[in-house]
């Protein structure tokens, strides 16, 4: 469900998971039965909130737990860049409210049920999707219902930045179907038991066994890198991917050449500065673009580009045929120079 609504959610409780991660327990007010049914752990909810400068934005957060018909949790990491997440950390507290717009996403507990084996790969706060699914599986297991064997490989910068660590360890120690391996990338640790120093290599990824599904959640770079590994190692596996950051702008973006965007639908010409995504350029110029994830997952900002010079960062939804026909995602397209023709209303 991604129909835009205008609902309020009351914050009922705030807990500190790590120094930079808070969990907010929210109760949505006055929602329809359809909206409440769409609140599933693993999906994400769109919040409309301001950043630290007071500029409003729409941002997506994974539903990590559903508590009854109208209550759910989200986990938010403070980024330190003055964005919406930082503002939520600073101002959202028990008794305050926030605007909820819609629920979106295709990954939920149903996505992994019926499988014999499931692999999960998470980077940092990307653990929010796996923890949501694991909680659902644990509840099924408590009711003696069938669950798949699950192997989770979690990558974090430091030990202090591992969200839900106690819960994950308890789950592994008390069940026969779940295993955990944590890779610490920016801190010296002794590689033993659950901990490994550095990033996972091919032999580490082989711990996933022969998964029918692989859940990947992390930054755009993490998700893209792990997708390539999984496609090579497990070509028959179905990949379920979420990314919570937009692709980074190419480092070589020119600053001394003319860049123009020619909009086919109204013959308008824009002259933005290079260095941002096409989506950001259009939005900054007041051009409305249908978008949702901003990370190359959902495909909502699909359009056509031609001529000029631009860089296409990897996405997770367009086929090679789509790209050969000139389709691109605005969030993954970085104009560089020349006159680039942009068709905002291509026929699919």
TrEMBL record:
Cofactor: [2Fe-2S] cluster
Keyword entries, A-Z: Iron, Iron-sulfur, Metal-binding
Domain FAD-binding FR-type stretches: 1-110
InterPro entries: 2Fe-2S_ferredoxin-like_sf (IPR036010), 2Fe-2S_ferredoxin-type (IPR001041), Beta-grasp_dom_sf (IPR012675), Cbr1-like_FAD-bd_dom (IPR008333), FAD-bd_FR_type (IPR017927), FNR_nucleotide-bd (IPR039261), MRET (IPR050415), Riboflavin_synthase-like_b-brl (IPR017938)
Molecular-function annotations in GO: iron-sulfur cluster binding; oxidoreductase activity
Domain of life: Bacteria
UniProt keyword Iron-sulfur, yes or no: yes
Limits of the 2Fe-2S ferredoxin-type domain: 257-348
ATP-binding listed as a keyword: no
PANTHER family the record matches: NADH OXIDOREDUCTASE HCR, PROTEIN RFBI
Protein name from the UniProt record: Ferredoxin
Source organism of this protein record: Pseudomonas cedrina subsp. cedrina
């Amino acid at each position: 469900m991604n129909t835009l609504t205008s609902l309020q959610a009351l914050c009922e409780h705030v807990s500190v998971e790590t120094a930079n991660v808070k969990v907010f327990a929210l109760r949505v007010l006055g929602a329809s039965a359809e909206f409440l049914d769409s609140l599933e752990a693993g999906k994400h909810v769109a919040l409309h909130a301001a950043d630290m400068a007071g500029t409003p934005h729409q941002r997506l957060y994974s539903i990590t737990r559903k508590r009854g018909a109208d209550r759910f949790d989200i986990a938010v990491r403070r980024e330190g860049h003055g964005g919406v997440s930082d503002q939520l950390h600073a101002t959202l507290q028990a008794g305050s409210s926030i605007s909820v717009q819609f629920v979106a996403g295709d990954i939920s507990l149903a996505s992994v049920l019926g499988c014999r084996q499931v692999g999960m790969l998470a980077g940092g706060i990307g653990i929010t999707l796996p923890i949501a699914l694991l909680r659902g599986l644990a509840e099924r297991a408590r009711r003696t219902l069938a669950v798949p064997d699950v192997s989770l490989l979690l990558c974090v910068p430091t030990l202090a930045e591992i969200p839900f660590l106690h819960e994950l360890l308890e789950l592994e120690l008390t069940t026969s179907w779940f295993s955990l391996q944590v890779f610490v990338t920016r801190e010296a640790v002794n590689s033993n038991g659950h901990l490994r120093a550095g990033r996972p290599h091919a032999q580490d990824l082989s711990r996933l066994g022969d998964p029918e599904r692989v859940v990947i959640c992390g930054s755009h770079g993490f998700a893209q890198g792990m997708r390539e590994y999984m496609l090579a190692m497990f070509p028959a596996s179905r990949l379920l991917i979420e990314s919570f950051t937009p692709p980074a702008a190419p480092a070589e973006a020119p600053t001394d050449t003319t860049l123009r965007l020619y909009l086919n639908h109204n013959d308008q010409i824009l002259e933005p500065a290079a260095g941002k995504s096409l989506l950001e350029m259009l939005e900054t110029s007041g051009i409305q673009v249908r978008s949702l994830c901003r990370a190359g997952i959902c495909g909502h900002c699909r359009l056509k580009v031609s001529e000029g010079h631009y860089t296409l960062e990897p996405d997770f939804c367009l086929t090679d045929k789509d790209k050969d026909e000139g389709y691109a995602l605005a969030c993954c397209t970085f104009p560089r120079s020349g006159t680039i023709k942009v068709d905002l209303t291509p026929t699919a």
